[in-house]
Amino acid sequence: MPMTASSVYSATKAAIRSWTISLRHQLKKTNIKVVEINPPAVDTRMNANNPDVKGMKLMTPTTFAEIAVKNLKRGKVEILVGVAKPFKSLSRMFPGMAFKMVNKA
Hints:
The chain is mainly alpha-helical and about 100 residues long. The chain has a two-stranded parallel sheet with strand order 1-2.
C-alpha cells in the first residue's frame, strides 16, 4: 500500500515485490529459492526520526530477525512479519480503507 509521504520508497517496494514474484516463477524448476520478507515498522536508525512512524509501536530488530529466521527455516517463501500479515489481507479486501489508514495525515 503506497504511502504518499514516501512515494519513491513505496514505489521501489512495489517494484521489488513484483520482481521477486517474477523471479520466483522463473526459477521454480531450479534449486534457487526466491524469498520475500515483508517487515513491519522496525526500531532502526532509519525510523529514529521518521514522522511516518510517529506513535507506532516499532518491533525490535531482534524480534524481527527471530521471526524471519524461524519462517526461513520452515521453508516459507513469503514472510509477512507483525502487522504486515493482517495488513496484506486488509489491503486486498478493502484497498480504499487500507490506503486511508496508511495515509491518515
